[in-house]
Amino acid sequence: MQRLRMGMIGGGPGAFIGPVHRYAAEMDREIELVAGVFSSLAARGKAAADVYRVDPERAYPTLEAMFAAERERADGIDFVAIVSPNHHHLPAARAALAAGLPVMTDKPLTATLDEADELAGLVRAAGLPFGVTYTYSGYPLVREARARVASGALGTVRKIVVEYPQGWLATEATGKQAEWRVDPARAGLGGCIGDIGVHAFHLAEFISGLKVVSLLADLGTVVPGRALDDDCTVLLRFDNGARGVLLASQIEVGERNGLRIRLYGDRGGLAWRQETPNMLELTTLDGRTEIVHAGSGQLGPDALARTRTPAGHPEGYLEAFANLYRDFAAQLRGEPAPLLPGLDDGLRGMAFIATAVSASRAGAGWVPLTV
Ligand SMILES: NC(=O)c1ccc[n+]([C@@H]2O[C@H](COP(=O)([O-])OP(=O)(O)OC[C@H]3O[C@@H](n4cnc5c(N)ncnc54)[C@H](O)[C@@H]3O)[C@@H](O)[C@H]2O)c1
Fold this sequence. Notes:
globular; Rossmann fold; Dihydrodipicolinate Reductase, domain 2; 9-stranded mixed sheet; alpha/beta; single chain; 2 domains; 5-stranded parallel sheet
């Protein structure tokens, strides 16, 4: 089987998520990174190509140069991965779609809601596969949680608590990852809410199968001089009437990447933590707790299909990310990949960010979430 050839936009020297996309895309040998515009600076793009073992001729200085050159090659790229900062997602995706190439982009979909609307029009008009890497939906036990909720294990979901605490932006932001995240021109409308709150939002909808229909947001800017939010409290109401609480913060000193979700129904509860991702807890009304282990015979087909190692051999972040690429590769080959987040998930995330930011600024109380 011919491997799919990936071109990457972003992921230059010192970048966080670019190398993760590279590991993840290549894990199952269905995809190979062969080209990219890895940096806005040509020399740094070449340096990245060296690290990625990509032909330096295929480390391009601009999007235009990449699409023009790759179009002429018999072994040109089959799709594009976008891993540059948020403000660059739209121009990168626009150029890729114009070149007739499918797109896998990182979240948030774009920097602003207007950009998201434009991108949605372009994706629909192009009719090409389009994925969004909401990483946590790739974990086998998150997929198991979704399947258990769908099968009625919790009964009717009545309450969802999702929290995403980090502490790395508790003081003035310095360093490559931090600087653009606190700059509205590059991060967009939201700070913490767009960076990690949107992951929590997607995870809550993904596992529950419910949609948020209204919210009450209190977004704070705790670090003096910062232009965007860094500490978020959002109350949620879901389309079945369930209530929710979403906490996301980047000023909680001592917290690393403590994404955690709990769902409570009228027949049971469920809990999953990103930092111990190989266990899922399910508790029934009589108080008994079942611990579901990754790789075990307790798993249903969605989780088993995306599990690589037997029970007790931990899988983690890279494997979860690779699951999204496995789904995307399936989609490129014309097979269904219903669990891969796509345009609609990206748009819902942008609506969540925009609504939370504007409602919090206006002190608007409860507001509808419309997409
Ligand atoms: N899915 C996840 O779990 C996850 C995690 C981290 C980051 N992200 C997302 O990934 C994106 C990048 O975040 P990061 O932390 O890797 O940032 P980063 O600052 O570490 O890396 C961004 C890279 O993009 C490059 N870049 C900037 N402008 C460019 C341009 N015009 N052309 C080509 N390359 C350009 C930079 O040189 C850098 O190498 C963001 O949208 C972020 O929200 C997602």
